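Weekly sync notes, structure subgroup
Attendees: PM, AL, DS (notes)

Item 1: joint prediction request from the bench team. They want all two components modeled as one assembly rather than separately. Inputs as received:
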Amino acid sequence: MLLKGQAGWYKDAIIYQVHVRSFSDSNGDGIGDFQGLAQRLDYVQELGVSAIWVMPFCPSPLRDDGYDISDYRSVHPSYGTLEDFKAFLLGAHDRGIRVIIEMVANHTSDQHPWFLESRASRDNPKRDWYVWSDTDTGYRGTRIIFLDTEMSNWAWDPISKSYYWHRFFSHQPDLNYDNPAVREEMWNVMKFWLELGVDGFRLDAVPYLIEREGTSCENLPETHEVIRELRKKVDDQFPGAMLLAEANQWPADLRPYFGNADEFHMAFHFPLMPRMFMGLRLEDRKPITEILQQTPEIPASCQWCLFLRNHDELTLEMVTDIERDYMYDLYARDKAMRLNLGIRRRLAPLLDNDRRRIELMNGMLMSLPGTPIIYYGDEIGMGDNVYLGDRHGVRTPMQWSGGWNGGFSTADPESLYSPPILNPVYGYQAVNVLSQKRSEHSLLSWMKHIIQIRRSSPVFGSGSIEFLYPANHRVLAYVRQLGKDTVLVVNNLSSAAQAVELDLRRYKGNILIEMFGRNVFPRIGDLPYLLTMGPYQFYWFRLRRI
Amino acid sequence: MAEEMLLTDDFLRQLINVGEVDILVGLRTHNNADTIAPVIRAIQTGILQCFPRERVAIVNADGGSQDKTPELIVGASIDDVWSVSKVYALRTLHCISTRYATSPEPGTALRTILAAADLLHAKACVVFSPDSTTIGPDWLQRLVRPVYNDNFDLVSPIYRRQKFEGALIQNLLYPMTRAIYGYRVREPYASEFAISGRLASDFLNKESWNDESSRLGAEIHLTVAALTGTYRVCQSFLGPKAQDRGASDLVAAMRRTVGALFSSLDSDFPLWSTITGSQPVPTLGAQSEFVMEPARVNRKRLREMFATGVAQLEPVFTSILSESTLSELQRIASLEVSEFNYPADLWAKTVFEFAASYHKSVISRDHIVQALVPLYRGRTLTFLLENRDGSGEDIERNSESLCADFERLKPYLLEVWADRK
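Output from the run, pasted for the record:
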């Protein structure tokens, strides 16, 4: 059953992204599970987030961490049972926390029964559920996404002696969405989970659903038709459920995924994220304001999803070559940190474990227009292990305490699904939930505070944004406004103290109330409003006319 | 304290907004609207191409332009460069401007730029002439890289010149500076150069800014400061140089350059008096290049101006020159163009005697510099005649010969410096 609440709940949400496998192990087998996740829901509630996004948990050979599904209607046995999932879902809803799950719609595992049937013979009824060809020359204009591992988007199948299409790993054949039976079956899968009560889906890899010769096979009109069809069914049968698009595209290419409010409710703003990191190192607001200027308006009921880090590499697909080189040089000098066109690192190590920078980046995440997503562990400043291969280094066990396996599991350390972070700086003995809960000045306590403040006003989720352009380019300032609620946000991107003059004449007569300490700042007059800011400092001011 | 008086509050506010920079590009302007556009475009393109990651600011010190030169500089959009070159700027590029005076004072303009570089902690400060219409985007990196990457403190330019261009530099400034200070810097009075933050800061803090020669010929003083201090100096070949607009006013040019050079000798005597010979400085690219285009020069007019000057200024020369030098000049003044020759060693002696007289202020220092002008015209005539049919190598050989004479006769300077004959 869906959690009751207002339509558009996702606009004011704060989402916490977790991987079942990585979060908490209840049965001591070294792998996180749904019972463990359910046991940690009080922590999630205390953190203050309003939704959990659970990464793929369906049965899978786990050759791509669950994004290679072999059964869409069940739970991977390592993570528990469907009953365990239902119990988790109920526990989350009881705490007012919504649950978003993954819908890996573009492709299946090559071990999925559909594909096993499809490859069995050329006249199998499921043959047309995937994209087959006698040659590997079709769709030549299509880029390869996993450049480090794949040479082609076609893979040879020795059983049916033909090629199948795959946009990701070769063990992930793409489904054929030109086939109505596929579309119908994937809707049935979504319906299955919606009937259990999930509140929304993150649809994986949506730009790639349809292929057409002579195109890039991305963002095609036919793909939008598929999405509109799904959205209509969701709205008709499960009003309030939310669809979130994973489409790593430029803003202008993303805009169509909102349609006329008849496709996705939300979409990740991929190009913004690397530019936030870039702006911080450049100590210049230009990359951030530029990309947001290029971001088109979206329908009122729709929303951007913002994030600093997630389970994947910090993707640099949506940047220019010169920007990518800069990011590599500044954030990934060690080649082991690089993967595909990105950087496989967590937030704290990316920011040199600098608490001021971590706070500033979270401050921007929480105050720019969109729904913020916090990746598990980043709220306590967890580190990574770039030597674990692929993206496993940012998917290590959650660090709950300084005890056995960091409180993640009672299993022998050798049997954990992944070695925990052990180094003296980021290891679980130094960075863990238990110790940070005991300190009101810990990063965790600070995160709780900022989440609480963010949730205190709908202006952050639904308000308009107007950028101020003070002559000091190291300062990123904007005004968020919703009705009579006005918030001024001022961020110092520089490692040095700055003076900035803001033109606030249109708000003349208002006083500023700093939202963290609730202190009153002087009334706005005719002169430029002068602020002095410490290194990486930021302010959120509520404007009040008293 | 000095900067507080120099910089206006408005300019200071602009500097605060710019913040710390890696490279500061200085432009000293006065009614340069006709030529500034390609200059600013080349600078912006150079920044995008060669220093996309560095924090760069363009700082214009304007001497009271009436033609909206500052507005053209501040309004030049980097996006226009991007649309043509497709090179993308990672950062905000600041272009700021200040009016330091209502009439141009090159020294004050330079001082304003150096003060900005100092306040913004610039690692490198590069200055371009607003008249350099031949500037290319690569000029920026040719001047800045040696400072930014290789820790040089002064990068002086070398230009490809038309063979009779830059006669004042070739016949006086270069050989004199080289003989006095012992370093072979081809353009001691450069309108384009780059300096390190350290040199900018040190030079800014010198107390001689209020001297007239410092205000007029700050470039010479800067070169001398670099040569006489613990600084690393190099040269960088830039390419063809457009003729400076002010180059036709010879008296003014002599005041700015020769006056400043003579003035520097006063304070630096302990340093230069012990130097003998000269040594080359590291040079990136060509040592010198000449374009062999024929020049239209009125040689007869030059000879007449020389002869008239020698005759009319005899009472002045009596105070400045030795009897033998004056007598030799009078002999040369009677020669026709076809026989005319103002020999290199006599020219070196003449200059040294002027320098010593300037030091002793035997008459008004400004009059001394002005009195050198007709003699310089005579030397220029010899320079033209010597090199009329010469190749680039010939010009270079003659230049070296002149420099050798200046170096050889340096003891004579010391002699007249102590006790003018």
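Discussion: The first strand of chain B starts at residue 23 and ends at 29.
Action: AL to compare against the crosslinking data before next sync.
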